[in-house]
Write a structure and sequence with these properties.
Layout lengths: L10 E5 L3 E7 L2 E5 L5 E2 L1 H14 L5 E6 L5 E2 L1 H13 L4 E7 L6 H10 L5 E5 L2 H9 L18
Helix pairs in contact: 1-2
């Protein structure tokens, strides 16, 4: 396992030498995926283990930052779906940063499989994602919330 950059965050865990999970605020975790990564069953399982360790203090908000051309295998997608079903009461919302429009399939995957478990919204940058995430305090989207259907 790799090391997290010193001094950036209080709690940081490296997974598979390239995926980071960092506590960025008391109720928020950030998962950072590297460029050109293929995320499979074992990586998702390791991420889920770290998330479970961090959820003992109550429900959390997640910020997931995908790298350029990050891809999830079919096994990774199914593991992620099943794990999110189990922890839907532990996650208030997830903001997902997709760095470029070429990852539309990843966005469609999240929309189809993840949004039924908790509020999910997609963004082009971390700053906008954090602003939205700070405003989320319930597990379900409001009926007139169009943000969940757009890449902001």
């Amino acid at each position: 396992m790799g090391e997290c950059p010193a001094g950036l965050f209080k709690h940081c865990n490296m997974i598979s030498d390239n995926i980071r999970i960092e506590r960025i605020q008391k109720d928020k975790l950030m998962i950072t995926y590297p460029d050109l990564a293929e995320i499979g069953y074992h990586e998702v399982n390791a991420i889920s283990d770290k998330l479970e360790d961090n959820m003992k203090g109550g429900p959390l908000k997640l910020l997931s930052v995908l790298g350029n051309q990050t891809e999830f295998t079919i096994e990774g997608k199914m593991k992620l779906y099943l794990d999110n079903r189990k922890r839907k009461r532990s996650i208030l919302a997830e903001a997902i940063v997709i760095p470029n429009n070429s990852q539309v399939l990843m966005e469609k995957f999240y929309r189809a499989l993840i949004r039924e478990h908790f509020v999910v919204c997609f963004f082009k940058n971390v700053e906008t994602a954090m602003t939205w995430l700070n405003d989320q305090n319930s597990r379900r989207p409001k009926k007139n919330n169009n943000a969940k259907n757009k890449l902001l």
